[in-house]
Structures are given as C-alpha cells and as structure tokens.
Amino acid sequence: MLNFALGPVMSSDLVLKIGSEQTPYFRTPEFSKITLENEKLMKEMLFADEDSKVIFLTGSGTSGMEATVMNVFTENDKVLIVNGGGFGQRFVDLCKLHNIDCDDIKIDFGSCLTSQMLEEYDNKGYTAFMVNICETSSGVHYDIDLISDFCRRNNLFLVVDAVSSFLADYINMSEHGVDVVITGSQKALACPPGIAIITLSGRAVDRVNNNSCKSMYFDLKDMLLNAKRGQTPFTPAVGTLIQINARLKEIDKNGGVESEIKRISNVAYDFRLKIKDLPFEICASELSNAVTPLHPLTAKASDIFNILKDEYGIWICPNGGDLEDTLFRVGHIGALTTKDNDTLINALKDLEKRGII
Ligand SMILES: *Cc1c(COP(=O)(O)O)cnc(C)c1O
Question: Is 62 in the pocket of ligand 1 (CB under 6 A)?
Fold first, then answer.
C-alpha cells in the first residue's frame, strides 16, 4: 500500500514496530515521563512560551477543536472565523452548537485570505479569532503573519487549527502571538489516529482555569491538573502516545521541526514539478506543503481515486460532496519520499496511456 491521503498517513518503521507491541499499564512514573517528554518536545516544535501547557486528548482532531471551543470561550466572547471550506465551517458549527457568538469570513474555495478582507473587521468588537491555517479541504495555507498582525492590533485571542499543517508549514506560537494550536496524531505526526494535541499559551491556560466547562470528558481544567504529573484523568490512547514520543524524538534527532518542514516541502515541491506534464490543474493559491489539490481536466476525480486504489494499491485523497468528481488531493505528509512520488506519477502516466485520463 502507498498512501497519499491526508490522514491517516504512512508511518515510519519505528512507529509501526511500537504499534505491534503490547500496550503497557500507564499509571506509572515511566509513562508519566513519556507524556512529560511529549509536552516538552511539542512546546519546542511550536516555539511556545515557557508558561504554555500541552494537552493530549484522546479523540480525533475534531475533539481538540470542540474541547477548545468549550473551554476557552464564554458567552462574553465574539469570535471571528475564517471559513474557506469544510474545516472552517466546522469551527462555525461548533461555536453555534456551544452558543458562542461568532461571525465568519466566507472565502471562495481555493482562495486566500487578504488584508482587504480583514480590514472590514477591524474594531468591530471581536474578542477572538479562529483559523484552520491549512484549510485541508482546499489545500490553502492562510498567511499567518497577516492574521497575527490583525489579531495583535485588535487584541484578539488567536486559535489556530494546525491539524494538517503542524510539521508541514512554519508556525511559531511566540512570534505569531498564537494562544491555542490544535493538531492531531494522524497527520504529519504520522501516527495512528486517536490523539488530539492542544497547546495552550499562558493566556489560554488562564481562560481554561477561569471557565466552567459543561462536560466531564472534555474539561481541560481537569486535564491541566493531571498533566502536571504527566497523567490524564481517564485512560488515554496509551499506545499512540508512545508512538508520538518515538516520532517526536525521531524528528528532534533529525534536526528538529525546521528539518521536518524542509523535508515535507521538498516532497511537495518535487510532486508539483512532476505533475506539470499531466492533464491536471493545481487549483488553489498559496498552498500548504501538506497537500496539492488537483482538478483532472480529462476524467472524473472519483474514477481516478478508485482505479488507483483498486488496480495500483495507491491511495490519493478524494474530496467529498459537490467536489467528488472535480477535485482530489495528494498529500505530502507521513513517511513519503520523492521515490514514492515517482510511483504515483508513473501510475498516472499509465492511466494516460490507457486512455483513462
Ligand atoms: C484532519 C483535520 C482535522 C481533524 O479531523 P478528524 O477527522 O477529527 O481527525 C481538523 N482540522 C483540519 C484542518 C484537518 O485537516
């Protein structure tokens, strides 16, 4: 199997090996050491301030989005959300569900956020801003400097969903003034799904501690308390946390977050060069290194997805809904190399020879 989807993705041999081992009991100093080390490495890789805290929540990435909305906002907030696709819409739906006052900046699918769009929202009484920095459904990577400037001049609390972007694109919590970064185990961390990682600035920790969360499982206050000793209130995805530990240490050993971003951006750049001669259009501006969205000019996207999966053992990432036939995505995260790009390009060339595309 060769997997170019956007989560779950291909794992390294080390992560796979750990997955085949027995899951240990976790209320031990040995396991606490692992989670505390995970916290330290996450903070380093996100350039988080000393007083920030990291929460490992057992659930998919969306659990991290929902827990954030439930724990950092109150009825006194007014949140501005960048909505350029499926994940932006998810933040809007979550705020509405939890009765948090919000407005969204609607962005055409595949387009970027501009300073002109933001200027309309200056001095309008907002207290917070939410963005999926890579809107994975379209592949667009929004300009974090632009967003950071806007939030600073309007004194907004900034929440960034970097679920697909962490380790693929540069983000610096201190420099960009980010209060919450959400990511997940099954994207560029290249582990199985099951853990959402929420990194909170000191300001975000204060918000959590002063809030009352109407949930037992999603109460981050309780998690912060337990996290001090490297534990969680309830049984976490123990095996996945051990895999995350191995993976974070692997990245650290290989030159840290900058090297990993460079590695992924090289794979993306290589793919975008090689796809040029085939009948596809790259259809977004300002792309994340995590993904290339492609519009096939001569065939249905869903047919290409099915044929590659069934006849070549290669997985690309289909789009859903209205875009099912017109768009698919190729991911560059996970244990992929430029050689793997060649395998995919050769399969696509074969489809061309067969008259399928
Ligand atoms: C994958 C992803 C999520 C989380 O999705 P889950 O299916 O809940 O893991 C959230 N935001 C973005 C931008 C994503 O790419």
Answer: yes
Reading the chain (357 residues) residue by residue, the pLDDT tens digits are: 999 999 999 999 999 999 999 999 999 999 999 999 999 999 999 999 999 999 999 999 999 999 999 999 999 999 999 999 999 999 999 999 999 999 999 999 999 999 999 999 999 999 999 999 999 999 999 999 999 999 999 999 999 999 999 999 999 999 999 999 999 999 999 999 999 999 999 999 999 999 999 999 999 999 999 999 999 999 999 999 999 999 999 999 999 999 999 999 999 999 999 999 999 999 888 999 999 999 999 999 999 999 999 999 999 999 999 999 999 999 999 999 999 999 999 999 999 999 999
Q: Is the CB of 136 under 6 A from ligand 1?
A: yes
Q: Could you tell me the two tokens for 111?
A: 């387009």
Q: Is the CB of 89 under 6 A from ligand 1?
A: no
CATH, range 256-353: 3.90.1150.10
d(CA 177, CA 257): 19
Domain ranges of the chain: 14-253, 256-353
pTM, two decimals, is 0.98
294 half-sphere exposure, CB direction, 13 A CA radius: 30
Are the C-beta atoms of residues 171 and 162 closer than 8 Å to each other?
A: yes
Ligand 1 pocket check: which of 58, 130, 137, 164 to mutate, most ligand atoms within 8 Å of Cβ?
164
Reported CATH class of domain 14-253:
alpha beta
* Beta carbon of 7 within 6 Å of any ligand 1 atom: yes
Q: Point out the ligand 1 atom lying closest to the alpha carbon of residue 63.
A: 8
- The residue among 230, 217, 195, 241 whose CA lies nearest residue 28 is 230
Do domains 14-253 and 256-353 share one topology? The answer is no
